[in-house]
């Protein structure tokens, strides 16, 4: 994609998928009572918040995203804000914007 940093689409896709996975876990009492499932999500979530999210924000701050990617990034921030209570409920790391 011209004008876009490599991997941005994949970062966005994975981060949106993580938000969806968190919501799905929270909505299923049988799954969210399973410590193994919660642990697996926590590890994956932490990896995304420590790696892909800061990388994506870095490119956002430097203007390296296309208009559509900037829009999707804004949507991602809104979705992350909307799941703050779930992040706290499961003891997940919060996304940090520096």
Topology readout:
Layout: H1 8-27, H2 29-32, H3 35-61, H4 67-82, H5 84-89
Helix pairs in contact: 1-3, 1-4
Structural class: mainly alpha
In this structure, how is the largest beta sheet organized? Answer: none
Number of domains: 1
- Helix-residue proportion: over 70%
- Report the span from N to C terminus: 26 Å
**Strand fraction band?**
under 5%
Morphology call: elongated
Unreliable spans are: none
Q: How many β-strand runs?
A: 0
Computed CA radius of gyration, to the nearest angstrom: 14 Å
Query: Strand-and-helix sequence, N→C?
Result: HHHHH
Number of continuous helical runs: 5
Mean pLDDT across all amino acids: 92
Oligomer: single chain
Structure characterization notes:
This protein is mainly α. The protein has one domain. The chain has five helices and no strands. The longest helix is centred in the middle third of the chain and has 27 residues. The radius of gyration is 14 Å and the shape is elongated. It starts with 7 loop residues before the first helix and ends in a 9-residue tail after the last helix.
Short descriptors:
98 residues, mainly alpha, 74% helix, elongated
Concise synopsis of the structure shown:
The chain has helices at residues 8-27, 29-32, 35-61, 67-82, 84-89. The protein is mostly helical.
